[in-house]
Amino acid sequence: MKRLSRENYSSPGYTVITYMDKTPEKMNISVLYKNPKEYEEIAKDICKIFGIMSLDEIDINIELLRLEGVMSESMLNVLYTIAGVIIAIIVVSSVFVIRNSFSISVAEKNKQYGMLSSIGATSKQIKRNVIFEGMVIGLIAIPLGIILGIVAIMILLQIVNYLLIDMLDGMLFTYSINPLAIVISIVISIITIYLSCLIPAIRASRISPIESIRGNNDIKIKAKKLKTSRFTRKIFGIGGVIASKNLKRSKKKYRTTVISLVVSIFIFISLSSILNLGTKVTGLYYQDFKFNMYVDNGTKEIYEELAKLDNIKDYSYYYETSLDFDGNKYASEFGKGQMTVYGDNIISLVAYNNEYFKNYMKEIGLNPENYKTTALLLDEVIRYNDDGSKTVDRLYTIKPNDKIKVARLDKTYNITISKCISDNKPMGQEARYYNGGVIIVSEDFVKEVLREEIDGSSYILGSLLINSKDSQQLENTLNDLIKYNTKYTGLTVYNYDTYVDQQRRMVLVVKIFLYGFIAVITLIGVTNIFNTITTNMILRSKEFAMLKSIGMSKKEFNKMIRLESIMYGAKSLLIGIPLGILGSYGVYKAFAQGVDVGYAIPYLPILISIIFVFIIVGITMKYSLDKINKQNIIETIRKDNI
Q: I need a labelling partner for 359 at 20 to 30 A (CA). Which of 6, 375, 475, 529 fits?
């Protein structure tokens, strides 16, 4: 069986598990709840039965409870809020996508509905016809969507199990079909389809037979509203004027296309923000360290021996103690307000092994020969702003070559600060929180300046930090030493690369889920845009043929279409980008309930949206244009769109 957590490598024997012949007076009891969510209430009852004063005296397996879905109130609020935002995005985008599809369908069948109306079809029958069409699509799409959803999740879970197998400690994710989720999906889909069909159905039922047969019901011409500026004529010529008038006189078709683009932009920016914030949050746990392994519970002699092993590029260890220090005397304006938080009379002293400290001095541009008298100051406080940027404040006004007065064990010292460190921090200090500040020195500094011997009573020895060429190989070597050599018994080895790799895979899993979701929604949006623009272009083929027949050149005609696509894209971006920013801010507020990493405007998704819109509109327009340019002018004018 697997080694128990309570049995380490230094245990004098092995754990044996058996059964009890008799029930002892005192024993440990473990319970497994049928309903994990009731664990607190049941734990309180257990405490009452056994006379236990507090829940703190009971061991609660938080990890198992979390896997069973029992989470803190704040975590649940974050998850529910994020889920709510995502569901709202899906429903809104789905309504627009399906509604646009039915609007196009109704527009294509205008003459058909007019003819049906002219031979006696009632408004109610035409309305029912459109809704029935939606119902048939739903009967096919909903079961197919549920099946594809289940298959997609099962595939994703296989990928997750593969990527996170070592993190799950032998457990695997399995998919359990939740009947309630399927019922909710069906209900939401039915409501979505019905709402999407309703407006086109009402519009179709109100069609005038004569207007629909003539085909002019979508075009409303009012001279005042069709006026274009002199600027448009001067810059874009007659093609620009006609393009502008085309969009103004056929507002329904123009609006449908713009809405499709706006929804796609909004979804992409909002969901990209979920991914960026998720990556930020997970990235907070692991920093860019200068070491990839560390060893605990050793002595200086053992650390020096281990440092001679092969496969080590660099290493360090340090001792830590505290010095009495008048923080208020040296405090900056920011620091004065922080003294109550960080303390105003203590500063940490960290003494590195001489070899590492000399190498570090070379890195930061100081002369390593002066390592015995060099003292460095770290006193930064990092704050994250609402825009996602970070502000670095200093607790003290101390500058290089300033002398500061410190005390220790009734002795007073004047220490000269050689440099204030900001970016390139020494190994082990990369993610440290400097409450009160830290003075970095060498072991020999303690002996030469403080006139003290480093002992185990007042100086605490930290970990051996290692930068290894092959951390896995070194970890195996160290574990073998611990296992077979009693001298190293009690040492603990941590392979930081393992944790970083796990973190990267966790981020990759998040990216797979979110990018997959973004890809599906974007694909729906692109399909909708392509469908909308190509259909509108085809419905206007007679109009285009007439323009060509009265003398519009191919060059001017192509210019007109390109200008229309620019106008589509520009208006979509003007509406979609602000909505996307609002959506991304909503996502940030949802995340901020758990971890607030600051809000940043999603510039990259906005830039991608701008490029994407003009590419997709341009390609779609070109595709439609190629089809229209192949048509015969006379045949197109004579043709009826039914």
A: 475
